[in-house]
Amino acid sequence: MTEQNLPKVSIITPSFHQAIFLERTIRSVLAQDYPNIEYIIIDGGSADGSREIIQKYADQLAYWQSQKDKGQTDAINQGFAMASGEILAWLNSDDILYPGAVSAAVSYLQKHPEIGMVYGDCDWINADDRVIGRFPAAQTDLKKLRRGHVHIPQQASFFRAALWRKVGPLDDSFYFAMDYDLWTRLASHQPLLYVQDVWAGFRLHEGAKSIAEDDRCWPEMLRVHYRDGGKKLSLFTLKYWVRKLVQPLWIWLRRKRIKA
């Protein structure tokens, strides 16, 4: 297939004060072997050198901006509003795509027209790019998602733009669980597919939300649970309270892992 016949993949990177990692994120996208990528960077007006890093690669970007926004979710929505691809993804400014990830994702979506999203495996990496673990990805569906069985690494997820137009945009009232909210909406229309290929690196570091503000995740997921008709006495709410109890240990283990 020529580039013109390949579906365009639009990748959005929301960024704010991540200059220490941003260039590695950008290069991981630009180094993909897939020839039809539309790469958009939405920076929230960073004052840490991020703008200069983005400008360095400006001629390889479809669009970029660096100006105040309402946060990560708003930045992602702004990017997708500009995107013209048939397949969409977002990659946060401290994460990376592995070589061949986009080509593999497109191949699965082409072979399985019945699915709305495909996602692969994802390594946990530290600030120095060293692999320190593996995200517990697994096959899930709407029923499992509503029970709290998420198991979807956002960094390694690619979904159809036609489906996004049905269910988007992201709910910008969510700070942490906007991806979980989106997965449930996607899965309510089409199946999701998990493949056992490692497509991305999920960076754990002291400034990451998954370390510094993890306590905001499950309360937001609980909002989705109740919104979609979930009951107060359910497996989901039980998992919420168990997670709340073990969270200090969970965070301590993550911090120990990134410092090892």
Task: Tell me what the structure shows.
By secondary structure, the chain is an alpha/beta fold. The chain has one domain: Spore Coat Polysaccharide Biosynthesis Protein SpsA, Chain A, CATH 3.90.550.10. The chain is built from 10 helices and 9 strands. It has helices at 19-30, 50-56, 72-82, 101-111, 142-145, 161-167, 178-187, 209-212, 217-227, 235-259; strands at residues 9-15, 37-43, 63-66, 87-90, 96-97, 117-125, 131-134, 157-160, 192-203. Strands 1, 2, 3, 4, 5, 6, 7, 8 and 9 form a 9-stranded mixed β-sheet that branches. Helix 1 (19-30) links the parallel strand 1 (9-15) and strand 2 (37-43). The longest helix has 25 residues, at 235-259. 40% of the residues are buried. The mean pLDDT is 90.
